[in-house]
Specification:
This protein folds into five domains: 9-244, Bira Bifunctional Protein, Domain 2 (BirA Bifunctional Protein, domain 2, 2-Layer Sandwich); 255-438; 462-561, Elongation Factor Tu (Ef-tu), domain 3 (Beta Barrel), CATH 2.40.30.130; 568-718, Threonyl-trna Synthetase, Chain A, domain 2 (Threonyl-tRNA Synthetase, Chain A, domain 2), CATH 3.30.980; 765-881, Diaminopimelate Epimerase, Chain A, domain 1. 36% of the residues lie in helices and 24% in strands. It has 23 helices and 35 strands. The strands form eight sheets. Strands 1, 2, 3, 4, 5, 6, 7, 8 and 9 form a nine-stranded mixed sheet that branches. A hairpin with a 3-residue loop joins strand 26 and strand 27 (671-674).
């Protein structure tokens, strides 16, 4: 029997990647957990999730062979984390991928070599078992040829990978036999086999043979190009090399568990099974929270921000169970960084910022946590004493709304005590915003159906728009009409796409919209209009056109970009770079771009930031941008390799869009960024920069909209015209007098409001002196009920205070009407409130005014839209007290 190697997590990750690099694969970096340009995903949840554009044929990769170790988040079974050996909210997926290149014949021998060769993992072949799809005879034969014994090959009808529309096909799974001593089922248990529900046979690798398109018609058609997609869980493989009973006893988690021990009150991992669950939950969740915040997501009540908030609060509550009574999660961020620094150095680099976000959220939750736990514990005790096995929905909602307990956390806490939660009652009490937050889940949609209309078209096309906006004799080298390659297209076709051998039209990318313009024939006649430009799979500029005359494949045309529009877009694009740098300088280095749109008449820039952006900060940002414009700084570009660009200090945005050669845009010493877009030659061309608006648009995402040049002048002119109008209305001769005049008017208005309030109070007091003398006797006690002519609910409450001070009756019911609105107030003396509550009385009479309300036992109020029902309400109050 071969001796098992001792490898740590960093060594396993590196060995896997190096193996496939030696087999011609390109190492792809681990992408951000926040998906880029993929609205179907809440999080990146697998290695292949970052490869979708290659697998569905939208983009042809530089190298069809790729390998990666991709950080991923899945949150569909959070409640299982800590209770099982291998459930995690964040994990790393090792993978190798082939896009139309190699297939089963190559990947199966490679897999066996990596797993069993002494140069690589060096597993004992006798420890490995393989499952395969029964109809996949090729996979069986290749496994046998690689050296897998027949009795280690097992058919499994579930070995078919299919997540909806798009690529699908059979797969094969590899299991490692950890021995019966590691098992959680008996030797003769029917689940004790590779692929069964047991801990002995550990699944370590899944290799998917994508060979079919799952069509919208629910059929399976052969793919134009067959693909390979594999996934090996790093945490699982490391547990083998480190001989760990579960994933948590590995170097990826144990430092976090050990640190948690130092925070707890004499709790030690491995001494108590219940405590061990809590240690595991904290270790798992702090990893996920740290990486998610590091990638730009922030706690909130919606979407991925809700996931972070839920995980953080679950970890805090879990800490309470270990006796941790002070904020501790932020202190664990550097430990996460140390564990992962070999492949993710950015975590340590941003540790202070990540910790500050966690600390703020943790402290906010801690202020209400104890009250919520006390309420929950009391409810649980009451339920047990009363023989009830359910927590009502209203209580669950109060825990959520008042104390910040996600419903899932309440359910989990209740489940630990053998109780359930009234989910339907909770949902009935939720607001629309809270419903959206509760429904935040991973959306694991399939890929798009693979298309090969342009996949095989490799003829190059050159973009020259950086230096010229028109081209003579541009030749059509590719032409489709309604999805079919054609020799000629005419205006009757609905969808016409053209590739020229050379073009001045920019293809939409990096937030910059595409150019528009004209296609002109040799006679000077316009034959078509370019309305959009995108990138074809091999990155040629693909023009979408509207024709006014037929065009032919191979023919040559003059291409003319809309110059004024293009120049405006250039100004706005350069402004985004200036703005990006200004935000970093003013708000801090943690600020990073989260999206942008560069249009003709404005720019939109989204960025990550924790907290509000003050008016002072916005002014500083705007001034900084304009200072660079007025300094007349040259804007230069250079094309180089990625490493050289990084040495220049270039900022990389959405790095998965960059190839081996990159274009760097440099604005003097102020800003240097990777960018393939169009820019001005000097910042003075922008003329003026003006921020139009700034607001939050998502969890930790802020958005600035701004204008430049003539659009900025127009914006300022409109504001000047508005100020002139206000000055005229205020009858001041100069605009600078407007603030002083407005202040004078505000002072006068406050004085008048004060006088009016005093007058209303006097009127109300006069009415009250008459009303309070009219006391009615009821079975429940003395009642004063009357309709008054007062300003609203505020004065009704003042009268109730006077009534209570004088003690003129046991019950007070007052009403007033203002236009089409009605107000009711009920007050009850302290002694009578023990028997008749104000809230019950107001609910009984409020329907008469088409309203509803509530309040304390001694005071309640209601509003409605039927003033005509006031007399009926007062009579109903009398009837209620005479029951």
């Amino acid at each position: 029997m071969k001796k098992l190697k001792k490898l740590n997590s960093a060594q396993v990750r590196r060995m896997y990647l190096d193996f496939f690099i030696q087999h011609g694969h390109k190492e792809m970096p681990s992408r951000s957990l926040v998906p880029v340009d993929d609205p179907t995903l809440l999080w990146i949840n697998s290695g292949v999730a970052t490869m979708k554009k290659y697998f569905d044929g939208k983009v042809v990769p530089d190298n069809p062979r790729m390998t990666s170790s991709q950080k991923s988040i899945r949150t569909n079974d959070i409640e299982n984390v800590g209770k099982t050996a291998r459930h995690h909210t964040m994990f790393e997926m090792l993978g190798n991928f082939s896009v139309g290149d190699y297939f089963k014949k190559e990947v199966i021998p490679w897999a066996w070599e990596l797993l069993t060769s002494d140069e690589w993992f060096g597993f004992d072949p006798e420890k490995l078992y393989v499952t395969y799809y029964p109809k996949d005879h090729d996979a069986y034969n290749y496994w046998r040829a690689a050296g897998v014994p027949e009795n280690h090959l097992i058919q499994n009808k579930d070995n078919f990978w299919d997540i909806g529309q798009g690529p699908s096909g059979p797969d094969t799974e590899i299991f490692y036999d950890r021995g019966q001593e590691m098992n959680n089922v008996a030797e003769d248990d029917p689940e004790n086999y590779p692929g069964g529900e047991n801990e002995r046979y550990l699944e370590i690798w899944n290799i998917v043979f994508s060979q079919f398109n799952h069509t919208p018609e629910d059929t399976y058609e052969p793919l134009p190009h067959k693909n390979i997609d594999t996934g090996m869980g790093l945490e699982r493989v490391v547990s083998i090399f480190e001989n760990a009973p579960t994933n948590f006893e590995t170097d990826l988690f144990m430092p976090l568990i050990k640190q948690t021990e130092t925070f707890s009150q004499n709790k030690q991992y491995g001494q108590n099974a219940a405590d061990d669950v809590q240690f595991k939950i904290i270790a798992d969740h702090i990893r996920t929270i740290t990486f998610a915040i590091g990638d730009g997501a922030l706690p909130s009540n919606m979407g991925r921000g809700y996931v972070i908030r839920r995980l953080l609060r679950r970890a805090v509550v879990t800490g309470k169970k270990l006796g941790i009574d002070e904020p501790f999660l932020a202190k664990m961020v550097p430990t996460v960084g140390e564990i992962m620094k070999d492949y993710y150095p950015d975590v340590l680099e941003n540790a202070d910022y990540i910790a500050s976000v966690i600390k703020s959220e943790e402290e906010r939750f801690s202020t209400t946590l104890n009250g919520g736990l006390n309420l929950l514990n009391n409810v649980i005790d009451d339920a047990k004493q009363n023989g009830t096995n359910e927590i009502d929905g209203k209580t669950a909602f109060k825990l959520y709304d008042t104390y910040g307990f996600p419903i899932e956390l309440t359910k989990e806490y209740a489940s630990d005590e053998g109780l359930t939660v009234d989910q339907s009652g909770f949902e009935a009490a939720m607001t629309e915003q809270q419903n959206r937050a509760r429904n935040a889940r991973d959306i694991d949609n399939g890929m798009g159906v693979q298309t090969d209309v342009w996949t095989d078209f490799t003829e190059p096309s050159k973009y020259v728009g950086y230096h010229q906006l028109s081209v003579e004799n541009a030749k059509i080298i590719g032409l489709t009409a309604d999805g079919q390659h054609v020799q000629e297209a005419d205006p009757q076709a609905d969808d016409i796409e053209v590739i020229f051998d050379v073009t001045p039209f920019y293809a939409e990318m990096g937030g910059q919209v595409a150019d528009t313009g004209d296609i002109i024939d040799n006679y000077g006649h316009q034959v078509g209009r370019v309305v959009d430009v995108q990138h074809a799979p091999h990155q040629q500029n693909l023009h979408r056109v509207k024709l006014t005359a037929p065009i032919k494949l191979g023919a040559k045309y003059r291409l003319v970009v809309d110059r004024i529009r293009h120049l405006k877009i250039e100004k706005n694009h350069t402004a985004t770079h200036l703005l990006d740098q200004a935000l970093r300088n003013v708000l801090g280095g943690h600020t990073q771009q989260a999206g942008s749109l560069v249009e003709e008449h404005y720019l939109r820039f989204d960025f990550n930031h924790f907290g509000q952006v003050t008016a002072e900060d916005l002014k500083a940002v705007e001034k900084m941008v304009n200072d660079q414009i007025w300094k007349e700084i040259p804007v230069t570009t250079v094309e180089t390799d990625i490493d050289s660009a990084k040495e220049m200090g270039a900022i990389a945005l959405f790095s998965d869009k960059y190839g081996d050669k990159v274009r760097v845009v440099k604005i003097g010493d102020y800003n240097t960024e990777f960018c393939g877009g169009d820019h001005v030659q000097n910042t003075n061309e922008l003329g003026l920069f003006k921020i139009v608006s700034e607001a939050g648009v998502g969890a930790g995402i802020r958005r600035i909209e701004a204008v430049t040049g003539s659009d900025a002048f127009k914006f300022m002119q409109e504001r000047t015209d508005l100020l002139d109008t206000v000055a005229n209305e205020l009858k001041v001769s100069q605009e600078k007098e407007v603030p002083h005049r407005v202040q004078e008017l505000q002072t006068q208005l406050k004085d008048l409001e004060k006088d009016n309030a005093n007058l209303q109070a006097k009127i109300a007091a006069q009415q009250a002196s008459q009303v309070f003398d009219d006391v009615q006797d009821t079975k429940q006690g003395r009642l004063i009920a009357a309709e008054l002519n007062v300003a609203g609910m505020g004065q009704l409450r003042q009268l109730a205070d006077q009534w209570r001070a004088k003690g003129q009756s046991d019950f007070l019911v007052l009403a007033t009407a203002n236009g089409d609105k009605a107000n009711l107030l009920v007050a009850v003396s302290d002694t009578k409130a023990k028997k008749v509550k104000a809230g019950d009385l107001i609910k009984a009479i409020a329907p008469a005014i088409n309203g509803g309300g509530g309040g304390r036992p001694t005071l309640a109020q209601a509003g409605g839209k039927n003033p005509a029902g006031i007399k009926q309400a007062l009579q109903q109050a009398n009837d209620y007290l005479n029951q």
